[in-house]
Write a structure and sequence with these properties.
The chain is α+β, with helices and mostly antiparallel strands. It contains three helices and six strands; from the N terminus they run E-E-E-H-E-E-E-H-H. The radius of gyration is 15 Å and the shape is globular.
């Protein structure tokens, strides 16, 4: 599992992320703003309070946490099979 090691808040609800394997990239979270639990991000100050949790995830207080693996895929443009090679294996059927 990949962990986020650094996060920097950018304009327009984007985050620059650095991961523990050295990969880095920018994720655009603007499409989530105002939807469901992400309604609190309408207040830009709350969005800017992002922290890295103990499992390398992004957290905003006790209300929102985002999976580092999903963010890794989004930031690097990789496919799940690139990160999790076991997904490439064909299953045997009886």
């Amino acid at each position: 599992m990949t962990k986020i090691s650094e996060v920097k808040v950018l304009q327009e609800y984007r985050l620059e992320l650095v991961f523990d394997d050295g990969a880095h990239g920018v994720v655009d979270l603007s499409g989530l703003v105002g939807k469901g639990v992400f309604a609190i991000w309408r207040d830009r100050c709350i969005f800017e309070q992002v922290r890295i949790g103990s499992f390398g995830e992004l957290i905003w207080g006790d209300q929102i946490d985002l999976c580092p693996d999903a963010l890794y895929l989004k930031a690097t443009g990789k496919q799940p099979e690139d990160v999790f090679p076991a997904l490439r294996c064909e299953s045997a059927h009886a």
